[in-house]
Amino acid sequence: MEKDINRIKVVLAEKKRTNKWLAEQLGCAPTTVSKWCTNSSQPPMETYLRIARLLEVEIDELINKNYFRTN
Predict the structure, then answer these.
(1) What is the 8-class DSSP label of residue 63?
(2) Going by fewer Cβ within 10 Å, which terminus of the chain is more open, N or C?
(3) What are the structural domain ranges in the chain?
(4) Buried (b) or exposed (e) across 35-67, using 16+ Cβ within 10 A?
(5) Is pLDDT above 80 for 67?
(6) What is the pTM of this model?
């Protein structure tokens, strides 16, 4: 089963941004962003929307579509 629900880590790399940068922009702990990037936890939907705006991507780019095809 595919574990990776989100693509936050991938999109951050594509945009040449760091976990620390995202944490600063969102006003949260870097450890929280790290958990999202490793898919050990997921951000709330409102946070997905904020992340998409900050990274200038559509929200669906933050979601691993393969996860939903296999589950």
Answers:
(1) B
(2) N
(3) 8-70
(4) ebbebeeebeeebbebbbeebeeeeeebbbeeb
(5) no
(6) 0.88
Beta bridge partners of 36: none
Return the bridge partners of 63, or none: 6
Q: Give the burial class of 4: count Cβ atoms within 10 A of its Cβ; 0-12 exposed, 13-18 middle, 19 or more buried.
A: middle
Tokens at residue 58, please? 């559509």
Q: How many residues are recorded in the chain?
A: 71
Q: What are phi and psi of 63, to 5 degrees?
A: -110, 135
- For residue 56, what pLDDT is reported? 98
**pLDDT tens, 10-66?**
999 999 999 999 999 999 999 999 999 999 999 999 999 999 999 999 999 999 988
